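Example with several molecule types.
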Amino acid sequence: MNQPASAYFMEERHDPNETHTLSVLVANEPGVLARVIGLFSGRGYNIESLTVSETESLKHVSRITIVTTGTPMVIQQIKHQLDRMIPVYQVVDMTLTGRSIERELGMVKVKGAGDQRIEAMRLAEVFRARVVDATNESFVFEITGSTSKINQFIDLMRPLGLVEVSRTGVAAIGRGPDGM
Amino acid sequence: MSDDKSHDPNQMTGAAMIVRALADHGVKHIFGYPGGAVLPIYDEIFQQSEVEHILVRHEQGAGHAAEGYARSTGKPGVVLVTSGPGATNMVTPLTDALMDSIPLVCITGQVPTHLIGNDAFQECDTVGITRPCTKHNWLVRDVNDLAKVLHEAFYVATTGRPGPVVVDVPKDVQFATGTYHPPRKTDVHVSYKPRVKGDAAQIRKAVALMAAAKRPVIYTGGGVINSGNEASKLLRELVEVTGFPITSTLMGLGAYPASGKNWLGMLGMHGTYEANMAMHDCDVMLCIGARFDDRITGRTDAFSPGSKKIHIDIDPSSINKNIRVDVPIIGDAGNIIGDLLHVFKAEAKKPKIDPWWFEIGRWRARNSLAYKKNNDVILPQFAIQRLFEATRGHDTYITTEVGQHQMWAAQFFGFEEPHRWMTSGGLGTMGYGLPAALGVQVAHRDSLVIDIAGDASVQMTMQEMSCAVQHELPIKIFILNNQYMGMVRQWQQLLHGNRLSHSYTEAMPDFVKLAEAYGAVGLQALKPDDLDGALQEMIKVKKPVLFDCRVAALENCFPMIPSGKAHNEMLLPAEANDDATAAAFAGGKALV
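Resulting structure tokens for the full complex:
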């Protein structure tokens, strides 16, 4: 081991990383999103995707969905660290429950003419993407689905004149009759 | 027409609410420094006598004083500072309190609501800056929210894992009139429910492990102190009933008495050989209110490899953070120790662990805290031993700064009771001890409060001597003066080729004259023979004292776990000659 001259033990753990989707119910109050994001940046955790919106306006409850990667120990830490924040009601690891639906919405702008335009339209149909804006030389497609489906659609659009993409990030919800 | 509300005693200004809330929470003392954005609150303080205000010389001093106050009483420390620089100067003590789980309530003034975000004079984003260094913080934009927020602030600071909170109050909110209410349950977020009671099944599992242990060790931390005096009492009973050896972190000293027969001394980087060896070789480890910090564990992949680990902590995020444990129990330390005792007494017998004690006896015989006596110069270890002897029989509280002197104080001063030892453990804040001593002395006017200091640390907050003199707080600043930043120099010697880069203080002030300049008393000891007399003098004086204790300049702090090494690879003082030190630290290129 090549430990440099330091009081800290420097060897990193090499457990494999896992990707988890966390649903976090929080009190909708000023600064709550900053607290969550600050936790991730301050402790060096990854955020792959983060979405937030008020979901129960009468109770002032917002739902944050975070997709994150880390070793199993880090994932457990993230959940505990989130859970101990004062405005956090509940943290559910949707990946561990194994019974969740994850969806993302993407809007994809493609510019082109002739065969390229026809091909883009044909692929959009295959992916069940809707046209939400069109000009003589462009489309904006709206596509909903898993992250990988949207990635795949974007990859296919790239050679057909992809201009830009806007994505919402992942929203997740559990299957079955029960809530969080 | 008369205004109905004009006779309602709960109608008041925001500034009045703050003082009223302090009184309602039993606050007797606050530490602070006035400024533009808190003038309405200072005006209220002027017109009452329930809450005494201690005027510091720098806001950092107020924060550490409040920490000392909190640690020595178990009550929250309260700080009042102004906006902008007042708030930013509080960042260090807030972070310190967060790391060491100290309950602080810090009220900051803020520029008027309509100016927030305008880069107004003395404006800063206080809630933004203090978000990562508080347990929680609030910006109060409406005077009618103020009472609720203040009550919640006290509740959050003092329950669960204690910690610092900030309530940021814009000046217009302080002037505005609104409705106050006394503390009530609904003031607190429904999402905040700290767990106190441990899971019964987990407690049974823990007792089963303990009853079958051949080589057990109890490792406690600041959580036992924070849990209150009852927790320390129960801990002592647990040690008695089980017969287990016990060690503690820096933060946990005093929960079990240093004179107790099962005491192994402190563990960790500068802990005793027997404590660290017991941790390494144990088969059952009972960790109570400690967090497997990196100064405790050494290299984590070689930490106590053969043990089953039970971890009691009130904060679930402390579990499995650094070290995987087998039986986690979430809840309050005192509460769970009580349950453990109950189940252990009912279902288990004291395990026979004589061979383990025999082994520990052999480690103890290595006498890892030994040092060579010297008749010509005062050795720092000797100074602390003499200080300990001189204070026996007194009602003594000890604070420290950070560095070698802090480790020597932990090694050589015996603590018999909890709440007697105030030191910056997690953050390691040089300059903590002097203002912390102020806070302790405010809470315990007639006690002997001593800051065991280093010459470098103490100069970081020296200005608070002026506060001590003003408020007639007879704190004793016992400076182990070696003219170096000793711990920095030790690391430079061990790891950076003895290149002593900027760790020597060329222009040391004359501490005796400095004391006199402040209106305090200066004392000095140059030789071992001077020491006892000067110590008696220091204890006798009823004024603040700066004690300049000139100690051996190049003494280093041992035993020590070298970097990247495990508990069973300690460097003992007897072996710490140049060759052994070089070998122990090899691997780093710095020693080439």
